[in-house]
């Protein structure tokens, strides 16, 4: 018998559906799938974000206030330090000038008590030159004399050492200056030491 022809091979049967290749989702797709996009959930999320924002703004305001307070404290500290340093320098300058005016007064008294026959000597001329330099120095530093003689007694710039009777001058008028007084600009460096009238009349003016 003749051999029958070969039959064509049957096509491969399709793989079961469970063996079909799966589509793997990305992480972003998974996160999107996990999101609850319902209006209630979105509103709650918006409120939560708003609360977080408000908390962050409050914290930022708190930090800003702390920084401003620290800056103000530092500025105050610098100002106080500068003021204290200036006050210390001013006190030292005042003490030094007080010694200089005492020295200048000593020179003046020495010159006033020099005998007439010695006034033309080179020694006295040298002393007078030193006295003038001291006076110039004091003036350059803002030191000026306090007026006293013939003026009413002023406790702010005068210091009473005695009350003099029988001067015929008004009571509390300065009738003698025992020691000069000085101002350092608008402050009293040393008050004038004075004698004041007690207001009683002079002997010639008294009635019997």
Written description of the protein model:
- The protein is α+β, with helices and mostly antiparallel strands and 208 residues long.
- Among the domains are: 38-98; 142-208, Roll (Nucleotide Exchange Factor Grpe, Chain A, domain 2), CATH 2.30.22.
- The protein has helices spanning 27-34, 39-112, 122-140, and strands at 143-145, 158-164, 174-179, 182-184, 187-190, 192-197.
- The strands form two sheets. The protein has a three-stranded antiparallel sheet. Strands 2-6-3 form a three-stranded mixed sheet, with no helix packed on it.
- Strand 4 (182-184) and strand 5 (187-190) form a beta hairpin.
- The longest helix is centred in the middle third of the chain and has 74 residues, at 39-112.
- The chain is elongated.
- It starts with 26 loop residues before the first helix and ends in an 11-residue tail after the last strand.
- The model has no long low-confidence stretch (mean pLDDT 82).
């Amino acid at each position: 018998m003749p051999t029958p022809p070969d039959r064509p091979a049957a096509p491969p049967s399709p793989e079961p559906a469970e063996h079909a290749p799966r589509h793997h989702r990305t992480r972003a797709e998974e996160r999107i799938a996990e999101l609850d996009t319902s209006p209630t959930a979105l509103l709650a999320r918006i409120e939560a974000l708003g609360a977080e924002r408000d908390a962050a703004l409050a914290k930022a305001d708190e930090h800003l206030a702390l920084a401003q307070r620290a800056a103000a404290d530092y500025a105050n500290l610098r100002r106080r330090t500068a003021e204290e340093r200036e006050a210390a320098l001013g006190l030292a300058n005042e003490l030094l000038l007080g010694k200089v005016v005492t020295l200048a007064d000593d020179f003046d008294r020495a010159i006033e008590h020099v005998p007439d026959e010695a006034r033309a000597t080179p020694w006295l001329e040298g002393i007078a030159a030193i006295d003038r330099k001291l006076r110039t120095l004091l003036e350059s530093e803002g030191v000026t004399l306090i007026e006293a003689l013939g003026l009413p007694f002023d406790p702010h710039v005068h210091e009473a050492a005695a009350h003099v009777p029988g001067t015929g001058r008004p009571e509390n008028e300065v009738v003698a200056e025992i020691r000069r007084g000085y101002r350092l600009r608008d402050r009293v460096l040393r008050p004038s030491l004075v004698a004041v009238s007690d207001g009683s009349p002079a002997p010639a003016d008294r009635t019997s």
